[in-house]
Amino acid sequence: MIGSSIKRREDPALVTGKGKYTDDLALPGMAHAAIVRSPYAHATVGGVDVSAAAAAPGVAAVYTGADVEASDIGGVVPVGWLLPGIKTPAHPILATERVRYVGDAVAVVVAESAAAAADAAERVQVEYEPLPAVTDPRGAADEGAPQVHDEAPGNVAFDWELGDRAATDAAFEGAALTVKADLRNNRLIPHAVEPRACLADWDGTRGEHTLRMTTQNPHLHRLLMTIASLGLPEHKIRVIAPEVGGGFGSKIHHYPDEAITAFCSMQLGRPVKWTATRSETNLTDAHGRDHRSLAEMALDAEGRIVGVRVVTHAAMGAYLSTFAPAVPTYLYGTLLSGQYDIPAIWVRTVGTFTTTCPVDAYRGAGRPEATYVIERLIDLAAAEAGLDPAEMRRRNFIPADAFPYQTQVALAYDSGNYEPALDRALELADYAGLRREQQRRRVEGGKLLGIGLSSYIEACGIAPSAVVGSLGAQAGLWESAKVRVHPSGSVTAYVGTSSHGQGHQTTFAQIVADTLGIDIDQVDVIEGDTREVQFGMGTYGSRSLAVGGSALARSLDKVIAKGKKIAAHLLEAADEDMEFEDGSFFVRGAPSKARAWGEVALQAYLAHDYPEGLEPGLEETSFYDPANFTYPFGTHVAVVEIDPETGEVELVGYTAVDDCGNQINPMIVAGQIHGGIAQGVGQALWENAVYDENGQLLTATLLDYALPRAHKLVSYRLDHTVTPCPHNPLGVKGVGEAGTIASPAAVANAVVDALRPYGVRHLDMPLTPERIWRALRNGEGS
Amino acid sequence: MYPAPLEYVRAESVDEAIRLLGERDGAKLLAGGHSLIPMMKLRLAAPTAVIDIGRIAELKGVCPTDGGLTVGALTTHAEITRSRELRERCPLLPEAAARIGDPAVRNKGTLGGNIAHADPASDLPAVLVALRADVHLQGPGGRRSVPAADFFVDLLTTALGENEIIVGVELPIHPPVTGSAYLKVEHPASGYAVCGAAAVVSVEGGRCTAVRLCYNGVTAVPADAVGVTEALVGTSLGNETIDEAVERHLSIDEPLGDTHASGEYRVALARAYGKRALKRARDRALA
Predict the structure, then answer these.
(1) Which of A11, A141, A198, B234 is the most buried (most CB within 10 A)?
(2) Taking a C-beta distance cutoff of 8 angstroms, is the pair A192, A284 a contact?
(3) How far is B147 from chain A (nearest CA, A)?
(4) What pLDDT band is residue B176 in, cutting at 50, 70 and 90?
(5) What tens digit of pLDDT does each residue of B12-28 get?
(6) What is d(CA A285, CA A241) in angstroms, rounded to the nearest whole number?
(7) What is the C-alpha to C-alpha distance for residues B132 and B113, in angstroms, rounded to an integer?
């Protein structure tokens, strides 16, 4: 069962339209909320006149920030990751004095229908006094830039560094070769298919709030609501994640919107539902990336890297979103060693406030940005040194016998074997043949061919809790699982992760069925409900299998251990002589002395013929705190063709060899790789969230924001190597983000590779035809 | 849901549609809805009423006429793409219609709706200009006909008068040895034309007798490369002749630009794709 590509058990309901998402749900007496949002990037708020809206047909109530302040809820959304010296200006759920980005919430209208609420929302009159906008992550820190928060002079939210600066500077001084680039990592909009939504149901008589909402982490949302936005006791809030249609990180964070909806329900004493329009989604779902980096690499005469130095400005947007401070620091700077043995690294990250949508974790979260920096630098170095990019990487890989490997940027890689993945990728892509074809075209003409490599490292399943706590996390990052065996032997597993497309109903059930030797139909998996499930951390950062799956494995071990005691009693054998295999408990060396799984499960509940002193029941819970991150890796190869006359670029080949350790369901793994590559190619070629100088989002709809389309992609060539994680029970690593981490750099390297004869050293993403056309004409970006 | 409140009425005939339009201030005609409804969902358009003309049978289909072919305003892009008559006698229109949106859009979107919206990046306007088509309009005062080149007045603005409705488009018959081509650079987000080059070339005795090159997506109204046309008539349309004519005589004023492609770049695309479209049209004429 483990290692088998069984079809996803969740799909029949989803693909036949039977899945119930938050917006599909309705409760008796339910009202609908529409949120009034600032059309200005930055403005002081004068009066808010709600009288016309309140008088509109079907309107139940209109609330402003003043109403929130007058209530006894907390009314602010908190920051979940703190760094030394960080500035954390308050983020009120409804702005009262100032708005700081287009989309900042100022009022909410509740009405009998969503249409009535939307119509009335247009009648709320807000007096704005516009202020200047600031949108560039680096420009925000310039002298004279408009100030977003009085508490954060120079718009600096934090100024963080990691590594040994003196040693790095020294490495650069003695280097035979140095390369330098000013890199922009383009701002992205997550675009989960299902927009964010919340259905809040306040029970005033019991003082209980039930929130059905789009969340990747129901327990964390509940905790954040308790400590900040709502202030209700934690046991009086129930957060339920119905079907959730994708997140890519955007549904981790605690937004004002769910707190606003909860507030409306409490005020009115009736259920209230809010569902974002697609336009609201684009304006307010926490965006991703948006870095400017001055990046340098130093090498010795043999092409070995001796130092890496990076100064990054990372936009935080108007407020610090839930885990935003961690993304360009501990999820980014720590990855700057890549797959390479680099003796000296120093990174500084300045997080800046800008009058834009907040930026937070988006698929990959820091790691695609780090991979982009290191993989662009190594290509620049290869070009400068006259080495093939594959050879350049090979020379610098951490050798297979050097693990565990301590990097200069805090992480200790537990395992790795990078060269076989590179070799396999080159073979699968026919790298030698591609280079010959490239050479032929460079002589004979035709479309320009570019080949790009990306040898990436990912750190996922962020852990252990004590370490992440010391780095600023305001949460533990362990995971929990409970295995409840029913008297007839079927199983319900309760896991603290929260699937929103990852297929946990299938993967986790495979682990249970395989371990217990029972049919998968005898297993159900429950997630995403704070009342049903013990505390859990949720699904993000490619953690669910490595951390949640490990907790599940631990609980199954405990169940089997107890089962052995029961079976030993039934067989009049010693506990320590019992074995369990294929659903049967038997005495070691005497397989005929056996009790089936079902008999033991039943006896656990009958307790008629039962070991003395053993509690009845068969239900075990584990809280698993990993010893370390897991470190998936691999090499991707992108191939592009460029029209030399117009700069039009086409992805014509893509090969990915990934190592995520042992695979439970290879089809789901391949699906994750496929989607991840598509998103990463999207960032490299098309996606770009653009704010104008007034802070207006120019790419606010899908008419202007270009998502990857199926017909623009290719059939990927996929393979994998298997280097099991040495420190978790299943030997598994994460895979949800690998494709997104590797592919932007692979595509960018391919485009620059194609343009190298034109004197182009670097071009920023997205690599639009116009950007390439200009480079073809001028060697621009060089 | 998404749009502002509005009145919905259905017209059963062209006359009724014109009357209903006259009775309502701020009303809009609704055909396939693929231009109007997206605008209404964003509340960029908020008509007081929509008059649904989608079921008026007299506005549908392709009909031969004395001088050529008439395509009814409600003919969908998919119907245009599939029409045997158009593919045989006026293949440029189906070639361009096939590049509009995706199958769902082509199954609902109509010729009349497309040109009434006059989106400069749409695929049909330059094609109609290149084909020397006439747009037939009907209003309270009766029918009139406007050359496509005059129909597109400005960005999202046409020669449609008050309470007028597009009834169809008339396509003239081209000389026997005529080839055409529509080449398009798609916007990666919208799928609309960043540059759409429509070329029609007629040849007789080895010489070019007529040529037309028009662009979508580059300027507010279809850009008609008159200079290129003049330079090519009478030539044998060799590759170098075409390249030189475009290089020397293509002149585009006030090109459009957005976050994806600037005006300067669109002009460069117009050069490259103008040459390619002319060559492909020539090859097809001579094939």
Answers:
(1) A198
(2) no
(3) 30
(4) confident
(5) 999 999 999 999 999 99
(6) 18
(7) 19
**What percent of chain A clears pLDDT 90, i.e. is strictly above it?**
97
DSSP label at A75?
-
Q: How many CB pairs under 8 A join A and B?
A: 60
Distance from CA of B1 to the nearest CA of A (A): 5
d(CA A4, CA B139): 68
Name the H helices within B90-142.
92-97, 103-108, 111-117, 125-130
Residue A688 near residue A391 (C-beta atoms within 8 A):
no
Interface residues on B facing A, Cβ-Cβ cutoff 8 A: 1-2, 4-5, 38, 42-43, 185, 187-190, 192, 258-262, 265, 268-269, 272-273
**Contact assessment for residue A485 and residue A601, using Cβ atoms and an 8 Å cutoff:** yes
Nearest CB partner across the interface for B259, out of A277, A688, A707: A688
Q: Is A698 on the interface with B (CB under 8 A)?
A: yes
A665: helix, strand or coil: coil
Residue in A460, A484, A465 with CA at minimum distance from that of residue A533: A484
- Provide the pairing of β-strand A272-275 with A197-203: antiparallel
Query: Is a pLDDT exceeding 70 seen at residue A780?
Result: no
How many Å lie between the alpha carbon of A761 and the closest alpha carbon of chain B?
A: 21
Q: Give the tens place of pLDDT for each residue, A193-240.
A: 999 999 999 999 999 999 999 999 999 999 999 999 999 999 999 999
Q: Scanning every residue of chain B, which has its alpha carbon at the shortest distance from the alpha carbon of A769?
A: B261
Tell me which residue of A218, A185, A244 sits closest to A22, measured CA to CA.
Answer: A244
Among A115, A703, A712, beta carbon nearest to B190: A703
Q: Global pTM?
A: 0.97
Which residues in chain A (113-152) have CB-CB distances under 8 A to chain B? 114-115, 118-119, 122
Instruction: Compute the distance between CA of residue A686 and CA of residue A246 in angstroms, rounded to an integer.
Output: 20
Q: Look up residue A37 and give its two tokens.
A: 């949002």
Q: pLDDT for B27-64, tens place per residue?
A: 999 999 998 998 898 888 999 999 999 999 999 999 99
Cα A631 from Cα A746, distance rounded (Å): 19
Rounded to whole angstroms, the Cα distance separating B15 from B139 reads: 8
Q: A773 CB near a chain B CB, below 8 Å? A: yes
- Burial track A524-541 (b if 16+ CB lie within 10 A, e otherwise): bbebbbbeebebbbbbbb
pLDDT reading at A781 higher than 70: no
Query: Tell me: the pLDDT tens digits for A16-58?
Result: 999 999 999 999 999 999 999 999 999 999 999 999 999 999 9
What span, in angstroms and rounded, lies between the C-alpha atoms of B238 and B188?
33
Q: For A234-275, list the strands marked E by DSSP.
A: 237-240, 272-275
Residue in A646, A701, A707 closest to B42 by CB: A701
Amino acid identity of B104?
A: A
Cβ within 8 Å of residue A522, ≥6 positions away: A489, A490, A491, A513
Separation of alpha carbons B241 and B231, rounded Å: 9
SS3 for A778? helix
The strand order across the sheet containing A649-659 reads: A448-457, A633-642, A649-659, A717-720
Residue B1 has pLDDT above 80, yes or no: no
Who among B1, B259, B265 is closest to A704 (CB)?
A: B259
Residues of chain B neighbouring A645 (CB-CB closer than 8 A): 272
Give the angle A232-A236-A241 at the CA atoms, nearest 5°.
105
Mutate to test the interface with B, among A651, A773, A777 (most CBs of B within 10 A): A773
Mark yes or no for CB contact A646/B259 under 8 Å: no
CA distance A615 to chain B (A): 58
R_g of chain B, CA atoms, integer Å: 19
